């Protein structure tokens, strides 16, 4: 089956908080933007019962409610959405290719916001009880189904303890398996104090999961004491895993730089090692993974993608001058040496008017065009012909040097 090809300025892979924010910025910049999400728009945040630390919502908000607002805002600015899975990508050329089962999307820039998936324990029989057979990753989704039942929570981070407390509103008992010693958890102190005081919560300290057991559906979780190796079976109706996430980066392996854990490496502009490819949110290697930080990532990437596309158009149309001669003065507006040479550049432009088009590039906010020309010293004067750099003058530029430069065109 021949795939339909569609062209966009920006394709965003992933529709969580970071991807949606990037979409808002790209859409508002009037870039033709497509967001592809394989599951639920809003990502993992939609599974969080209550978000209380996102600025602007003093009373808190449900994750689903907050992400719905993000979604509406992105659509307001013209972002298109496709609910499907990305099968392959090709970032090797100037045009970036993203393919789904039926379609082939060609873009000038791609923002990777593919997020992560829940980490499994690796315990025996775990795979037998996934997918609605007793092991869950979403308290918000499955809490009501466990009304007056006994459930277990694996983990002691913020998500584990906060979701565990939410489960106590429904379940008769919530058993929390914590691998640390009595009283020690990975969550914040407020959540810890509230959990320890909750009469419905019971803690199994120094334990990890040894096995999951049951006939067709989960009936027991066997915990192993990490100190004594003693095995203790717990009869439960469901088990919720909150032990972290793994980044969805398999698609980009051997293509985009990542750390040992598979998280993508970026600079402060969210740029990856491939020009035109950006990474944001939980898929990126960073210190804190929260909705607030995802929004920051998306904002930066959306703005950076806009600049990348704009600079690309200036570079191909103006700087390269369709293969003809071109003179480019590259400077930093906050550098006195660069500003002082502007009158000389104007004089050169007037003298060679009609012969050599002159462009001025300020690198104060972005070095994108300078990077394309492999220029890292400012100010510099660059002569281009036949889409190639003919000569470069750096720093101490004078009228005689500029004329020598022009003479190279013969």
Counted beta strands: 21
Instruction: Briefly note the structural class of the backbone.
Output: alpha/beta
Query: Given the structure, what is the number of helices?
Result: 10
Rg, rounded, reads 28 Å
Largest sheet: 7 strands, mixed
Distance between the termini: 54 Å
Portion in helices: 25-40%
Strand content: 25-35%
Per the principal axes of the C-alpha atoms, what is the gross shape? elongated
Mean pLDDT: 94
pLDDT under 50 segments (min length 5)? none
What's the quick description here?
This protein has helices at residues 17-28, 63-76, 139-142, 158-167, 189-197, 291-319, 336-340, 342-351, 368-372, 399-407; strands spanning 4-13, 33-37, 80-83, 86-90, 96-100, 103-112, 116-118, 135-136, 150-154, 173-177, 201-204, 207-213, 220-225, 231-235, 238-241, 245-247, 277-279, 326-331, 358-362, 380-385, 388-394. With 410 residues, the chain is of the alpha/beta class.
Topology, element by element:
Layout lengths: L3 E10 L3 H12 L4 E5 L25 H14 L3 E4 L2 E5 L5 E5 L2 E10 L3 E3 L16 E2 L2 H4 L7 E5 L3 H10 L5 E5 L11 H9 L3 E4 L2 E7 L6 E6 L5 E5 L2 E4 L3 E3 L29 E3 L11 H29 L6 E6 L4 H5 L1 H10 L6 E5 L5 H5 L7 E6 L2 E7 L4 H9 L3
Parallel strand pairs: 1-2, 1-6, 2-3, 6-17, 8-15, 9-10, 9-15, 10-11, 18-19
Antiparallel strand pairs: 4-5, 5-6, 7-16, 12-13, 13-14, 18-20, 20-21
Helix pairs in contact: 1-2, 1-6, 4-5
Q: How does this structure look, described?
A:
Strands 1, 2, 3, 4, 5, 6 and 17 form a seven-stranded mixed β-sheet that branches. Strands 8-15-9-10-11 form a five-stranded parallel β-sheet. The chain is elongated. A hairpin with a 6-residue loop joins strand 12 and strand 13. Helix 1 runs parallel beside helix 2 (63-76), helix 1 runs parallel beside helix 6 and helix 4 (158-167) packs parallel to helix 5. It has 410 residues and is α/β, with parallel strands linked by helices. The longest helix has 29 residues, at 291-319. The protein contains ten helices and 21 strands.
